[in-house]
């Protein structure tokens, strides 16, 4: 999917922005960069410096004399636009754009261009009107001018999110819910969860030790054990953490015994 | 909501990245920038040049000597992490983080820090272990190193999306989902969250007590304290639970003292 998305930069003034856009693209798995009438040398040292390893994209970037040529083979052209224009145009949010990508790319020949304008003046009305739709990145109304590479970063990130969402649902065994349930903390964990029986034994031990050190009075329990239960249960202890906590309690018991 | 989110940059080398991060923040409506031991002059001309109008954020950025001080008043500390570490830690995607913000900020005293590491080496293990959870921006596995300001841009963008989503539902018509989102654990909680500073004082006390009872050997720490940090940080302790745990430690200390 991502290989059928082209980023088109029109009239870029700062080579650093071209390099930074290339880096943002490659970070998110986009590889197709087109430059329309850049107002700088795209192979300037500053471009490579900001590309920081995405030099291949800078080197491979094709240059065009007009937007028309850069998007000729595209089936969907989307222009990044900060402003609403005189003539209203279909406008989507970055998220809606990304979520629509699988559908937009459903047919074999489908190809997309995301078009970004000049640092100072954006896209012209003529350029905006060459787009099927516009995408607007929601910004602070008091400070709305995004850096060019930052805008590329946001849209490339949203494209990748949409791509990953497809990937997650692509295998028969998997849906997002299952994946989530398998990884309660969002990463592969290093120890299995403690069992309920372990947990109950721990609470018995905890209450016994807290009573022995005179922190807890079973005849006047207030809500102490309930609060400690609530804390440790919502943490979803793993088996090693359980062993550590039992080990701490056992050591406290031993010290008390040493004393007596 | 956005005014209770602090961006913390640790050991930044390039003033341009500080300026670009400030611009990304202000574009998305974030204003609170903290710098921990920057390895450059944050008021360098390059910072202002890349800030491009977000100079006020650069000027207002507070500097700290350690992460600890920059997050002392925070109730949720989230570290941006590119890698999975030896010790798995609760990990969220930028979207899940953003969608959880209304919950995380439900109580009046709640404050969040999003922590970003050095351009070259990221966050240290010690810094990562001061975080309740980590956030990983999904990237191309073949080219995964995001520019610092680009990472700030992506997370700030997601925060703004979550903010705008609340705004859309913040009408009397709001549904059950909204009500749920107002509550950190799905219900109205009885105590405010513990602050980061409280938590760090607890960990100091915990380590001291575990050493005193000979359960922990600071000269051969293995991963004991890291595991206990991970456990108590992901439980998101409230202030009363914190008092109970400190009370237990104090009582153990007293019993040891009685003995000697």
UniProtKB/TrEMBL annotation, chains A, B:
<dbReference type="InterPro" id="IPR004384">
    <property type="entry name" value="RNA_MeTrfase_TrmJ/LasT"/>
</dbReference>
<dbReference type="InterPro" id="IPR001537">
    <property type="entry name" value="SpoU_MeTrfase"/>
</dbReference>
<dbReference type="InterPro" id="IPR029028">
    <property type="entry name" value="Alpha/beta_knot_MTases"/>
</dbReference>
<comment type="similarity">
    <text>Belongs to the class IV-like SAM-binding methyltransferase superfamily. RNA methyltransferase TrmH family.</text>
</comment>
<dbReference type="GO" id="GO:0106339">
    <property type="term" value="F:tRNA (cytidine(32)-2'-O)-methyltransferase activity"/>
</dbReference>
<comment type="subunit">
    <text>Homodimer.</text>
</comment>
<dbReference type="GO" id="GO:0003723">
    <property type="term" value="F:RNA binding"/>
</dbReference>
<feature type="domain" description="tRNA/rRNA methyltransferase SpoU type">
    <location>
        <begin position="5"/>
        <end position="157"/>
    </location>
</feature>
<dbReference type="GO" id="GO:0005829">
    <property type="term" value="C:cytosol"/>
</dbReference>
<dbReference type="Pfam" id="PF00588">
    <property type="entry name" value="SpoU_methylase"/>
</dbReference>
<keyword id="KW-0489">Methyltransferase</keyword>
<keyword id="KW-0808">Transferase</keyword>
<keyword id="KW-0963">Cytoplasm</keyword>
<protein>
    <recommendedName>
        <fullName>tRNA (cytidine/uridine-2'-O-)-methyltransferase TrmJ</fullName>
        <ecNumber>2.1.1.200</ecNumber>
    </recommendedName>
</protein>
<keyword id="KW-0949">S-adenosyl-L-methionine</keyword>
<dbReference type="InterPro" id="IPR029026">
    <property type="entry name" value="tRNA_m1G_MTases_N"/>
</dbReference>
<dbReference type="GO" id="GO:0160206">
    <property type="term" value="F:tRNA (cytidine(32)/uridine(32)-2'-O)-methyltransferase activity"/>
</dbReference>
<keyword id="KW-0819">tRNA processing</keyword>
<dbReference type="GO" id="GO:0002128">
    <property type="term" value="P:tRNA nucleoside ribose methylation"/>
</dbReference>
<comment type="function">
    <text>Catalyzes the formation of 2'O-methylated cytidine (Cm32) or 2'O-methylated uridine (Um32) at position 32 in tRNA.</text>
</comment>
């Amino acid at each position: 999917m991502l290989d059928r998305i082209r980023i088109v930069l029109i009239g870029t003034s700062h080579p650093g922005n071209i390099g930074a856009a290339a880096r943002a693209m490659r970070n998110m798995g986009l590889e197709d960069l087109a430059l329309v009438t850049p107002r700088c040398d795209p192979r300037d040292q500053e471009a490579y410096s900001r590309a920081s390893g995405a030099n291949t994209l800078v080197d491979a970037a094709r240059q065009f004399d007009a937007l028309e040529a850069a998007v000729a083979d595209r089936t969907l052209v989307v222009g990044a636009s900060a402003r609403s224009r005189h003539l209203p145009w279909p406008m989507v949010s970055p998220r809606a754009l990304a979520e629509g990508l699988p559908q937009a790319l459903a047919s074999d020949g489908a190809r997309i261009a995301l078009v970004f304008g000049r640092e100072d003046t954006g896209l012209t009305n003529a350029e905006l009107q060459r787009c099927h739709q516009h995408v607007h990145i929601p910004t602070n109304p008091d400070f709305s001018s995004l850096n060019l590479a930052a805008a590329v970063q946001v849209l490339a990130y949203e494209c990748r999110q949409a791509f990953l969402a497809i990937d997650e649902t692509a295998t028969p065994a998997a849906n997002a819910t299952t994946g989530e349930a398998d990884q309660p903390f969002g990463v592969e964990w290093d120890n299995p969860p403690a069992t309920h029986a372990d947990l109950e034994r721990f609470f018995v031990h905890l209450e016994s030790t807290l009573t022995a050190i005179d922190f807890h009075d079973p005849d006047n329990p207030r809500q102490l054990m309930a609060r400690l239960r609530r804390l440790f249960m919502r943490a979803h202890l793993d088996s090693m953490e359980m062993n550590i906590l039992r080990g701490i309690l056992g050591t406290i018991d031993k010290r008390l015994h040493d004393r007596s």
